[in-house]
Each structure stands twice: as C-alpha cells, then as structure tokens.
Amino acid sequence: MLKKVDLSIEFCGVVFSNPFMLSSSPVSNCAEMIARAFDAGWGGVAYKTLVTDRIPIIHPSPRMHGCSYEGKRLVGLQNVEQTTDRGLKPNLRDIAYLKKHYPKHVVMTSIMGFSNQEWADLAKAATDAGSDMLELNFSCPHMAVEGSGAKVGQANDLVRKFTETARRVTKLPLVAKLTPNVADMNEPALAARAGGADGISAINTVAGLSEVDLDNFIPKPDVFGKGAISGYSGPAIKPIGLRFIAQLAKNRELGLPLSGIGGIETWVDALEYILLGASTVQVTTGVIHYGYRIVEDMIEGLSDYMAQRRITRVADLVGKAVKNVHETSEFDVRRQGIARYDLDRCVGCGQCYIVCRDAGGSALKWDGKKRRPVLTEDKCLSCMVCSFVCPVSGLITFKEMPKNWKRRKTPTLG
Amino acid sequence: MEKNFDCGQAMAEAERCLLCHDAPCSKGCPALTNPGEFIRKLRLRNVAGAIRTVKENNILGGACGALCPTARLCEKECAATGIDRPIRIGKIQRFLVEHSWKIGFKPFAGGRFELPRPVKGKVAVIGAGPAGLACAAELAKNGCQVTVFEERAEPGGVLRYGVPGFRLSAEFLKKELEDIKALGVTFRCSQGIKGPDGAEKLLKKGFQAVFIGIGLWAPVRPPFGGKEGANVIASVRFLELYRGKPAQLRKLCGGKPVAVIGGGSVAVDCARTALRLGAEDVYLVYRRSFAQMPAEELERIEALNEGIHFLPLNQPTGYARDARGNLTGVKLVRTRLSGKDSSGRRKPSDVKGSDWVLDAGACIEAIGNKPEERSLSLGRLISADPGTGRTSKAGIFAGGDIVRGPATVVQAVADGKAAARAIMKQLAK
Fold first, then answer.
1. Are residues B356 and B383 in the same domain?
2. Which domain holds residue B293?
3. B104: nearest CA in chain A?
4. What is the pTM (predicted TM-score) of this model?
5. Phi and psi based region of residue A367 (left: phi greater than 0; alpha: psi -120 to 50; beta: remaining)
6. Active site (annotated) includes residue A30
C-alpha cells in the first residue's frame, strides 16, 4: 500500500489540498467539468473569467491553433478565446454548486470588468456565490472589448484602481493575474499590491503569432480569412513564466504569495515553479493536451520526490531556488571549463563537429577514418552547443579546468 | 539478453504512445497489466509511479516484458498500429523494471510503501515458477506469511530451467527474485513436496492454504519413441542442463549437425541454444508449414537470421542409428497440407515415397511437456476453478501449467494472482 504524502499548502490564507489548479480557461468553463477535475485530484480551480451580461461575448471560430515542432504535438497553443461566453447567473450557480459539493476544493473565481462599476459588481457577485478567493484578470492579450484584459495590465494605475475597487466590496483574498507582455512585471505587481491584492498569478499567455499559411497568407488560427496576434501558451513558454515568477519572488518590496502559470504539464514543471517561488501552480495547455488525468502523475511524482527527500511540507519547497537566481554580473568568470567527450559511446554522426565549426570555437577536428570528433581543448568555448545536438544523452558533459588553464584566442584573418 | 531501451529510447517510445482513452492494450493482458497507465506515467515523468504500476500488478513484470509474446497480446491491440506500428510495450515494461534496479527504487520497501493491515495466515506455495511466485508475492504484499517449497536447487521454475540465458539472464532473474524476497517470502529450495497427499500434509502442519504451481516437467515423446540418451534429448532436460552444465551439452552438440523436432517457442529456443553450443548446423523440423508454427513470428525470424535451417512440412518417423546405437540421422517424410483439422488449421499428410534421412549427430525433442509421474498430481493435470484456482479439496489451490497445460508465463502469473485473492478471501473468513 502507498502512504499518502500531505501536499497541502496555504496560498493567500486559503488552504489547498495540493498546489495543482486549473487555470482560468476552457478547462474551467463550467461546474460539470470542474467537478470531474476535482474528482481526478486537482486541488483548486481558477474559474473561467466572469464578465457582466452587458456586452455579450462571442468566441471567434475556430479559436485555437496547435503548434507542433518536428514530431512533437502541441509544443505551443495559440488561442483567441475570450472570457466566459456564458451568462453571469449560470456561472454563479455553478460556483455555488461546486462550493456545496466540493467544500474542501478551492474555487478562485476569475473576473474581468469593462468599467470600474463592473469590477465592483462582479467582485460582489462572485463573493456572494461562495467563491474562496478572486482572481482579477488584468492580462488576456486578445480581448475584443476595447480597453480590457492585458491593456489594463499594461497600465499600472488601472491595475491599482480596479484592485482597489474589488477590495472595497469583498473581504476575499484577491489575486491579480498579470500579463507577460510588459518589460517589467514588478511595476504592475506593486500596483496591484498597493490596490490591496493578496497575491499574484503569472503568467497569462504571451502575445504571439504562431504560423502563417503559405498559400493564402492568412495567419493561424484562420478566422474566416483573418488572423490576429493573440495568446500563446504551452511548454514553449515555460521559460518565460519561470522568469517572471522568479523576478516577482526576488522582489522583497512585493512580498506577495505567487501562483505560477505557463507550460506546466508534469510534476517536474510544477516543482520548478514552486522552487522559484510559486505556492500554487495553474495548468491549461497541459490539460488541453492530455486531459485532467495528468494531475494523478503530478500528485504521485511530487509525493515521491518529497518522500524520498523527507520533505514534509510543500511550503518548505516554495522559493528554494530563488536565492540561486543572480544577476549575470555576479558570475565568477575566473572559473572556466570545457566540453568532455565519452567517445566510447559515440555513434559517429558528426553533428558536434558541424555545430562547433559553425557556431562554436571550431575546437573539433573530424577524424574521417574513425568517424569520431577530436577536441582541441584550448579552443573549446564551453558553449556546450555540441552537447545539445549530440543524440547520445550524457556523452558530452561539462568539466571545469584548472585555475591556470587558458583558452586560445580566436584567430584573426587579414 | 537482447539489448533493451535506455532512458531516452524508452521516453521516445512512450512519446509515440497515443495515450488512448479506454486503452485497448490494457485489455489484452491475461495478468491485467495496464500499459496505458504506466506509459502515461513515464511520459509525464512520473517514473516511480510507472514502475509501481508494472510491479504492483505483476511481480515478474521484468521477465514478462522480456519474454511475453506481446505481438499477440497487448501490442496486438495497440491503436498506434493504425498510424504505423504498435508501441513496443514489452520493451518499455522491461525498461521500467531494469531502471528500478539501476536507480535502486524499491516499490515494496521503505519510502512510501507500507504493509496493509496483515491478513493473518500462513500459506504454503509448492513450486517456485511463475504461478507460484506471483501467488506468493501477492499474498506477501498483503501481509500473509508465505513459504515457497521448491524441488530444484534455486527458485524460478521455467524462468530458470526452461528459458535459455540469452532470453532471460541469470542476473536478471536474480534481481527480479530479490524483489519477491524483499516482500518477506521464505524460500525452501531443494525441498520438493511429493506424494499424492503432499499438499494435505502441509495443511496439517499448520498452513491454512496451499497453492500448487508445479508446472510440467516430463517430456512428451514422439510416437516412434526410442530411448532418450544416445544423443537424443528432450527439450526440458536440454534447457535445464544449459543453465547448469552447459559443458555436457557442448559435447553433445559441438561440431555436429543437430536436429530439433517441434515448432513452438521451446523448439526455437532449443535450436538457438544448440547453435550457441557450437553445433555445425541446426535444423528445425516441423510437420506443418512455417506460418503455422506456434513460435512467435519475431523469434522465428531471429532464428532464421541466426542461421537456423527451417525444415517445415517434414514429419519425423524415426531415428537412424549406427551399429553401436549412436544417432546418425532423423528419418523424415515430407508432408503437404490438406483439409482443415479440428483446430481449424490445415492438416499435414505424408507425401508417399518422399522418405529421407536428415544427417544429425544429436536430436532435441521439443514437442511438449506434461506432468511428471512422480509429482503430486501423479502425472495428471490438476483441475481447478479458472477464476480462483480452487481445487476439489478445501484449502488447496492450483494454477499455471499444471492446471491449464502448456501456456505462457504471463498466464501463470494471472493464475497465481487470482488464486492469491481467493486464498485471502478464505483467510479473512
């Protein structure tokens, strides 16, 4: 029998049975779906963004485009989906239903007003429906309604103003969901804090344009002859999400709990976000790819990791890697190394030779008879590009060189 | 053993998996293996979980991954076949088990594993082959005290004494057996339980239930008979000697043309073994066609590539011997296929006047095994309920080949597990 590991974590004063949440998106569209997700093991949900009934939302059709890379499907996902297209009342009833039947699961209701009054109305309605907390959507990059979504997130005064508005009408924890389509997320994050936010969710989708049809010149998704710059998500954007979470976590002035989002599919991805400062993590594209079932592996994987290392609380992992994120100016460049080759395992493809010649230090010669690379150590730049293209995993590794070791200078022609 | 996937290859293969809803592969295994789950777990980097899925269901998951006729079980059902080729489920399964040994992950010891509230009871298992081992492991995982009695010097049964090392190495088997020992199962080797009342005696000695999984260890002889010895050997002895005393077999086969009679997996194993023992040429003699051979297609192709000469449509009729009684050849008559027999296969019939003698310095008979006369079942199969292994005698259960006749390792595992569940039900009363 398998011992259960306690994965519970507190986020903005709300206790989650585990840090795994659905993000506000098609995967959290209604109670019927969310109930199944809760049954599968998800600890909480960011309920798909509510809007008032004043401006009806109609999604473009088709509304998504999946990006493949070589044989791998859904490396990225571009979407032009808007906020909920359901009426406010049905959504509020669904939220009340979820809280009645799943009292231990967290419902964080995402809201988006198109005016100051709407922010107040929605915050109040979502609170009255029984939500555990609210997520303020300042970040959808492709809202069809003028001056909403990421447009707000890019205007710090609006972030602060609408957070204040929500703050005035509800006592629930407020989490501001911010856009990565800014130069520095610290500013809107501090604005949200000043407005009374209790936490930050990041990132929303990255504004992108994933593919252009070469025959009709229409970018994807092709909405009856028109394309648009819109939200890009999935594994391809994970490094961007990790970056913003790390930056927010390092910001002492901010000091707010974080919910990490962006390209999470496995427990490993989730743990990386946690180590960089997220208390909870949110997933959409991973669910779009594999279904709610992936949470089983997130739970089992994180449980094993913690049991193996005798870590008893997820909270003890939150931010563990933050102190190791430095400014590049802090690197000790006196210490240098080179690539080390385990040629016994080499299959003789020569890709290392090509990239070293054309993108590295030209430190490799090619022994055509043996079909093996020959390294000139003092020409190796330690860029390690050879190891990225080598098909045999672990054949090329990094090794540090002694203190007095010197790299040869790049030759000059002419 | 054949080289298996490394980490990267296993992951690449897992990435080919379509992660089906309602995974059809998971309905193709007699032992209820769930590849849909362990491949998904591997794909989502939940490697420990994937190992658990394999080993919790089948304590011999490694051996089955290496030996299972997957092409006609799980992989036959694979939906990826509709795109190009099935996922190599057996190889992924074997990778996961070998990986657990490599990284020292023990699904049933320490870490997150804890014994459930023990089912009180002492159970004896007779025979340390696949059925007995699966039964013992299932019981021990649930807290029963299990003692396995094994007639031979070491546990494993057919995995040790019936499968050549190039298909399942001694080292591999040792590690898989360690997983069972780690559950607290006691092994009493060189301690066979004999006599028609052997199982009842164990019940009287304080065991509350007995599982019999003694397998089939007596050779079926061809109708033209003749005595074994004199360079004629049955597959069951041949493969057992290959584990224990290969030098003896090297003398038997070395430098000679060797004939193997039979068309099943065991016959192919014997032929490939003879080649490895230094036979000059190895002939596989089978009375039906190449396509009708019960041996798996992949095994047959590997054997062909290794240089085994296939002589299908040839019926052995006797042995040719010199004046001193030494084997000089196998008498054969060519056959042709005619109308269908009761098994639905086209029947071979002799071609008149086509008799010929295949030169052979040694012959291995591999046409089947049956229960041993001196075993507790006195040379008969034991009749037992297929879902529970219950026999007509209270407290005595049986499974594996001694119940169903010659079958696969995974089928024996399924029987052992089913009997363990029935035994636990009985103990709970």
1. no
2. 219-367
3. A308
4. 0.92
5. beta
6. no
